[in-house]
Amino acid sequence: MKCQDHLFTFLNNPHVPFDNNASERAIRKIKVKQKVCGCFRTNEGANACMILHSIADTAKKNIAVR
Question: DSSP string of 40-59?
Answer without folding.
Answer: -S-HHHHHHHHHHHHHHHHH
